[in-house]
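Record type: monomer structure entry
Structure origin: computed from sequence
Chain ID: A
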Amino acid sequence: MDKNKITFADIAKYTNFSKTTISRYFNNPDSLTLENQEIIAKALVDLDYRENKLAKVFANGKSEFVGIIVPNLYLHYYAEMLNQILNTYEKFGYKFLVFVSNNKEETERQYIKELLAYKIEGMIILSHTISSEELASYDIPIVVIEREDKYVNSVNTDNYFGAVQGTSLLYKNKCDVLLHINSIVPEDVPAYGRIKGFQDICKEYNIKHELIVRELEHSYDEINDCMLEIYEYIKKKYPNQKKAYFFLMTPMQTVY
């Protein structure tokens, strides 16, 4: 029998079950006895049956696909987040369609349109381009990570407490000046807590400090140039002083 053309009718004939019973095995196996499940499972092996996922999507409307949009993959943070998400397949069974938006708003909207056409089960958004209000309008389960999240579900870290801990540790090392380098972060973005935590600790202990906020750009080379510029600025402003650096992230480990 051609294994690419095996149907529920073929399996039913082989097992002497009805097509309804075979359908229940695929869509609601717990509704069958263990004995009948084992009979059908053995038949699938004997017939070398290969499930038609596309047919299953048409039948129950569930694609088992989740869309993911990341702003880039050259920053280790996004690459590692994507790696951890993809590794959940064995546990949860969801497959992923991944798009890299490169921080382009219209491109990201096109990607979302493409994802919706595949009848995805939901989306995971790591980019900051489109507002949560607009994302919520797509009427599909959405989870965002470490970004503005007023209208959608989100996964965030305790940025404020992390900044308090980091700044306190730098303070204990008796540096002459503490420097926090960050990109431009709106107050409704979770990462703003890092700025607030840094400033609060510096003010509480009367620590000499400076907050350096810059648009760090969106490519490897642009970030490298920007960090080198900041480094020259700091070296000139604080000569012969012991400096402590607190970064939003460290995209270029070779800069210092």
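Annotation 1: The longest strand covers residues 177-183.
Annotation 2: The chain has eleven helices and eight strands.
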